[in-house]
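Appendix B: complex inputs.
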Amino acid sequence: MTDHETTPASTSAGGDNNAHIAQALHQRFSDHLLRAEVDAVGTLQVAVDAGVLVEVCRFLSEEAQPPYPYLSDAFGADYEDHLQVLYHLFRAETGEGALVRTDLPREDAVLPTLTGLYNTAKWAEREIAEMFGVTFEGHPDPRKLLLPDDWAGYPLRKDYQRPDHPYLRPEPLHENPPAFLAGQAEPEVTEE
Amino acid sequence: MSETAQAPLRTEDITVNVGPQHPSTHGVLRFVVTLEGETIRECVPHIGYLHSSLEKIAETLRFGQYITNTDRFDYLNGLGNELCYVQAVERLLGVEPPPRTQFIRTLMAELKRISSHLVYLGTYGNDTGAVTVFLHAFRERELLMNMFEAVTGGRLLYNYLRIGGLRNDLPTGFDEQVCSFLEHFPPRLEEMNDLLTKNRIFIARTRGVGLLTAEQALSYGVTGPTLRGCGVSYDMRKLRPYAAYDQVEFDVPTFPEGDCLARHLVRMEEMRQSLRIVRQLLDKMPDGEVQADVPRRLKPEPGEVYERVESPRGELGCYLVSDGSDKPYRMHWRGPSFYNLQALPEMVRGGLVADFIATLGSLDPVAPDIDR
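Resulting structure:
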């Protein structure tokens, strides 16, 4: 058991290896770098200004020793006062990852595209664009991906109001509950 | 007459719509394929038909309530998805499940992998014109379904894993059930292997078809058997062992050809390796509790995790953000089929239209896993 739980520590060797990359990032992008450190499971956590996103990713993919050459996943998050976009880079040999994130304003959310560096970003950025309302400048194919072409609004934003549609209206039972359900509160979950 | 014969032949591209309802798409998937004669010039996937907003739903459910949703996107790997989710929540909470739990989780995930690969085997036989294998594969899969039913009560949707543990321990007689499967299945697997993999028509339809280089695959974020069929030994179970994978010995099969046959061979070998893992897990299975002490209402400290496990289709990722309440603030799934499918146009471009279905099937896509 203990063996198993300490396995992430086996990446702590890798973590030591990656600490110098965090340092190199600090030297190179000092003013624009908000955070660069290796976390408990060996993932390099990087937070940058949107302006240097492409340069930081290019540095991690090409110049860092050893590099994180590939993008496995990209996704967004809405923190109500700002949006965040995260990129998960990885090494194929060891599976080690780097999570690069950048904050951007909710209004006029614009990021440079990473499709020039990673093919993975093609679909990932289209999904973020339609779900969070982020514009990726220079994306070769900025259509909607999962949503219908005429969909209005950005569903994964916290303030999203779903459109009124007969299929999406609440069940009649919820609106006019029968007498035996009316007035019943949701059962409380007790703490133990 | 002579004028017509001398006029240059007028050619025209043909646009063919594959799907959204097509037996080989394993769900609702649509492709617009542009053909020049029989050669594919371009292929544009249209996805999203099965989008079920699992990420938004997570923001409305308590941590424990969400487990039932994880079975539903990659429905061939229900227990594997649950494993990814509960590991993510456990990392947020700092909870450590008991050793027996880890072994049972790994055991179920590997049985699920065999069952998923059997579905692949059957349907891929179907896609390439060998319908018999489908019946053989699904007959064997039925034995696995019976085991899942004995343990969890469900055949496809389980809701079995719990945060910090399991809903219940293995039932009495489960060991014998698995042992008899371990005895019965390997010869049947070899039989199916003889039936399909050694069939010259099958080989002719898959060898050299749907080529993908390792560099292309990695640049598109392709993972799983598709990547290992390009010769890259990338497997989360080996690289970053989770659950009880560090307690067992197994190999990560790779084939360097990067064609449909290589992907097929990877999956066949993975089933053999999974049997090896199951056997070792049964031998080493520790006794004890299956549920750690966790509070009834889970409120992880504010923070985030990005958890990765190996699903039968590739790297399954779960990004989870907690704001200190009892519901996830944000959750994101990395569906392996989503990124694997993205590389499909690269694989079919320049190939024959007859090979399109063979290439699509070799990715083993699950449509709800693409759309989530």
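Chain B touches chain A through 46 residues (CB under 8 Å).
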